[in-house]
Amino acid sequence: MVSASAQSKRIPVGLELYSVRDEMQKDVVGTVRRVGQMGYQGVEFYSPYMQWTPEYTKQVRAALDETKMKCWSTHNGAGSFSPENMQKAIDYNGILGSTYIVMASAGRVQGLDGWKKVAETLAQGSEKLKAAKMKAGFHNHAVEFRPLEGKMPMEVLAENTPKEVMLQLDLGTCVEAGVDPVAWINKNPGRINSLHLKEWSKENGYRS
Length: 208
Hints:
Layout: E1 2-3, E2 14-16, H1 21-26, H2 28-37, E3 42-45, H3 54-66, E4 70-77, H4 83-96, E5 100-105, H5 111-130, E6 135-139, H6 153-159, E7 166-170, H7 171-176, H8 181-187, E8 194-196, E9 200-201, E10 205-206
Helix pairs in contact: 2-3, 3-4, 5-6
């Protein structure tokens, strides 16, 4: 994962902790410390963090501070944007120091009207997050870049959400879907504030 600040030309490099999920299942705090010792500047937690207690979340934050890492964003299921879970997501992201609450999966979505409803959920979440000085985001997979009824779901999301909603670009799945990532970035200036970088090719698929 790469996260970029609009105020800085230096792009910090972080790790999406899902990539070390086996280690995270055994020892969250220890894994965070080891990632920091590897030289990463930040991390992105994924949805199981919502199952922690506030006290445990503070322990994880202490490990981040100890290794001088930042948590720029978290990956969430669509449920984190529901009215009953939004405040908990805000509270936990506040403890971790996160700026972006990213919807990493919209679940099963039927047709373009379904994607418009996802956009509406993101827009509503964005409005609620303003008071907490946080922002909403959406993380793509290949499916969002594949045309549906003549239009890409990512286009629907971009057109129906406010500009402060981050469009977190997963480079590998974008390329897998046959879309030019540079053209997509240029088409959506100021909205690609974070990138997930992984290699993909027709010959070898994803490189681990």
